Amino acid sequence: MNSLEANTRNTKSKGDVRSLRSNGNVPAIIYGGSEQNEKVSVSKKILKSLLDKEGFLSSIITLNIDGKNQNVLPREITYNVISDEPTHIDFLRVVPGVKIRIEVPVQFINHEKSPGLKRGGVLNIVRRKIELKCPSEKIPESIVIDLDGVDIGESFKISAVKLEEGVTPTIQGRDFVIATLAAPTV
Asked: What are the helix (H) ranges across the chain?
């Protein structure tokens, strides 16, 4: 679990927010649960290092706000169109027991143990992320698919993935394909 230092902000105008950004901070808001929304700011440098990690939007972050810890989930990041720098971030307050919708990345392992890939087969990934509905304390870091022993012509469907109890895909009523191992094209 990642942690991030945050400071309460009392910005009332665009000029206040602009000066906050010029000092190397990113304004943010924490919402959700029974508490009031909180305006905070986080360090741009530390935030950018966390953004580079895969699965940032699907991992719980502990915000240390003026000495008080609070678990949050990043929901939306706004970027500057020209510089591609983060300009604002929304955090969802994590309340234990509450089900949330979240996109979780798919990870493929044991490429070297797949006879289909050794013979020149191609792994066609249909979904790189899968949207799940799960309790906030059971968010998986990733969905792992093992390619050990997989041959050409096989496909990976959501029914073959073992999910924890209470964790369900948001797409219901059909067994959708995550990836296929196809024959090489000439």
From this structure: 14-22, 44-51, 115-118
